[in-house]
């Protein structure tokens, strides 16, 4: 009865405001409003009450308002939406992450939590509750997904009952090849909860059977597209297809946007997402605002590009009655920009509250995540430098060449991630040089070993150095290090240093730490402000530059962390012990 009374009071209040009898919260006037429904722009104003738009162009001689905001003739567009983001894999805790994305115009994210839950191990359910605590106080909206992989069925089931979880996250599509029962059970939970089921479709890897199986069981969306053929298959199979622009080759996003223009596919098929992205990248280039502008450069009309980052994303999750357009009844999530073709967020509102101005966050959030900080649990006591030596898989008959593994940081989806190549072999030593280019060495090292430790050694394309070493750690789904360098002893000393941390990234030279980024929250997040986190990631890059590396695009730490996705996918990470266990 009380619930019904609250609705009654609300509708009476709205009526009274529009009659001039009650006071609204905010009037935004002097706007050029983008109507994404009619695909037109009109001069007007927006009236806000209770976090929602309640009128377009209200009669200002009648309405009463507590606050008036002059929009300066700027374009008003809906708050931007990231349709698929690894909320737990970009290293910032939720409040610090908001400092980065909200000034770029992002007011809503649809977020994966699988790495965080997997890293927390036996504490996953408790950790997830702590992660989501106070989510409604953040300057952006978060809709989360329970893990579709990397955790137990029990963790997935518990998280499906939490706020703000709305469905099942990425399914472990490759394990369906063997009919993994955990996958079936998680899929059933997602369906039973009436939620959405995210799909990590991997059309470049799946056989025809699974191209049909995933949508047939109710998988809702697909962000794992890399080229024109992938996109065609994805939309043909009925997926809401998410165009991603996160860590990886910058040419991939351009290739996909050009394909949409070339094939004249309706923009309503597509949403925009980051997948994985660093806060440094957001601060230097932007978030969804940047990819909308890039889409326009590639030939998509400005309004259609904006709709891919607003209405079409909201509609794909059945939430276009809540946000995604500037219409009565929707949340007053509004971005004011001086251009539609090159998004420049001058002012950002969430629920009618001004939360960012000129790419600076105005709303401070007093949320403390230090309770999730863990104590280090070292695991490399018995590791020796010799275990990191580059040993040939095969030696040529004439003894001049050696076959080794090559890993490519940009090798997911559009190039081969790992392959066997022949390198020069001199005096019993592999010379890490191919086509005249010097390659660094890489070792993939299991942190906690019950018996023989899994170590995979090879050469590496993507991060190069003349001396020293750099290592990163990731605990999900199995605790592993990656170390890159030129010498086994230096790489070993570097790993031993990082092993004293919960997780993170360390650069060493002559066995001395030159830069470090600790990830103390279950090994996946930094208990730092945005400024502290960005300073730490940039210190890694600066130290690497001193060691001969010239970095472009994402920070080195983020590039290296993307390796763990493919290392897991292609079976290089074995063993069952994780950091939180």
Automatic annotation (TrEMBL):
Residues 295-355 form the Amidohydrolase-related domain. Keywords: Hydrolase. One of its GO terms (molecular function) is adenine deaminase activity. It is an enzyme of class 3 (hydrolase). Gene3D superfamilies: Metal-dependent hydrolases (3.20.20.140), Urease, subunit C, domain 1 (2.30.40.10). Its EC number is 3.5.4.2. Residues 421-554 form the Adenine deaminase C-terminal domain. It catalyses: adenine + H2O + H(+) = hypoxanthine + NH4(+). Belongs to the metallo-dependent hydrolases superfamily. Adenine deaminase family. This is adenine deaminase. It comes from Nonomuraea soli.
